[in-house]
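Sharing a chain and its predicted structure for anyone who wants a worked example. Both blocks are below, sequence first, tokens second.
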Amino acid sequence: MHHDPTRALIDGLGYAGLAPFVGLALLLWLVSPDLHPFVALALAAYGAAIVSFLGGIHWGIGLRYATTQTPGHAFHLVWGVVPSLLAWVSMLMPAYAGLPLLGLVLVACYAVDRKTWADAGLAHWLPLRWRLTVVATLSCVFGAAGT
């Protein structure tokens, strides 16, 4: 079997990126009530950053498509800003509502990626995206329940 260092790097970064989700969600169940607002904000801010990153991937796809006049580039450019806007709204909400919204947006991002990444030549990344989405979403919901 051939070792692909790029694949290993992407897998490693993806899985390492789950540590703040899982760690902060667990902390919400363990810390004293006076620390809850800080930990909840930390989890929501991290989730919002990741959701914005997922939208940014679509900007990259849309820009590449736009330069080749490939149909569908406008969808990617428009969708690319939606996760960031929803993440921003989630940050304005109390954590018990904002964290589940982030979980929902994570699922929506995966659903859009599942429909669009094959045409962009990215389908081979969907199993990793699914695993990351499941853990991140459950962390948001588990964290919200701890608030």
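Comments welcome. The chain has a mean pLDDT of 95.
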